[in-house]
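REVIEWER CHECKLIST
Item 1: Sequence provided? yes
Item 2: Single chain? yes
Item 3: Sequence as submitted:
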Amino acid sequence: MDIPSAQVEFSPSRLYLNSATVGLPPRKSVEAMETATADWIAGRVDPLVMDNWVDLSRIAYARLARTGPDRVAITAQVSTVAGLAAAAMGPGDRVLLAQEDFTSVLFPFLEARDRGVEVELVPLDRVIESIDSRTTLVAVSAVQSSDGRLIDLDGLRVAAADHGALTFVDFTQAAGWLPFGADDFSITAVGAYKWLCCPRGSGFMTIGPELHDRVPALNAGWYAGEDRWSSIYGPPLRLAGTARRYDTSPAWSCWVGAAPALELLADVGVEAIHRHDLDLANRFRTGLGLEPGDSAIVSIDHPTAGRDLAAADVAVAERDGRTRLSFHLYNTVADVERALDIIDGG
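Item 4: Structure as written out by the authors:
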C-alpha cells in the first residue's frame, strides 16, 4: 500500500500535527470498534473472537518491530514494562538513565533505589559514552517525547554489547515512523496510541527467551498462561513459554481497534512512512530557517507559534516551554504550508 492510499483511511476535521500526543485512528479501526460495541450492546461478545484481535495485533506489531510474534507481549502502559525490567535489578546492580527522559521510563528505576539498585542519571547526549563495565542496564527512550531528539540506536546497541550491559528501550515516540529492530535490545516497550494509531490502552513489550528466568512475570494472570482458557483457575503456575508469559489481560475494545491500524502501517511499511514523515518535518524546519533534522517531531522556541496555531484550530502541543509539532502518515505538504502560513502571519 502506498502513502496516498493509506491517507484515505484518515479524516481529521482540523489540521492535526499532534501525533506525538495521540495518533489518529484509520477508518478500519473505527468501523471494527463500532461493530464490537454493537455486539456488546446486543449481548453477542465472543471472547474467542477478542483473542483473535489480540493475536492479529501481536503479529502485525512483530512485522513493524522486525521481530517474531513469540517475542512480543501485550501491555497497556510502558511503565508496567519498565517496572518488570526494574524488578530484574537487585542490590549492587547499576542502571543508567537519561535525566530528561519521560518519567514512565525513569520512575520504576528510581523507585528501585530503595532496594539497593544504583541509578546514574546523565544527559541524553552522554548516555552512550557513560556505559561502562559497571553498567548492568541502560534504560532510555529511542525518541524524546519533549523535543524529538533521537538516541543513536546502533551506538547504544554496540556500547551495551561491548560492556555486557542489558538494554531497555521505550519506542513509544518511534514505533510507526522510525525503522528499528526490537531484537537488537534486551527489552523494549511501546505505548501504541501515538504513532501506531491504536486506541489508548494498547501497547507492547518485546523480550527474548534468554531473559525469561531473569525478568519476573509479576503481572501474570490467566492471560499469561500457556493455554489461556485452561489457566483460569488454580495452581500450578503454568506460564506460556513465549513472551506471552508477560501478557496482561487485554482491554478488548482497544485490541479490536489496534489490529487494523497496525496492519495498515505494516502494509505501507515503516521505511516509506519514515521518508514521508521526515520530508514533511524538514520542509517545516526549512520554512522556519532551521537546519534539517532526523526526527518527525519538531520542537520550536517561537514567541507566538503555539498561540497562533491554537487560534487557527491547529492541533499541536506545548512541551517543556516550547511548541511541539509532529508529522505523520496522514499529513501532507499542504499541512506544512498551512502551518507555516499561520506562524508567518502571526
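Item 5: Key structural point noted by reviewer: The chain has two domains: 3-26+269-345, 47-266.
Item 6: Recommendation: ____
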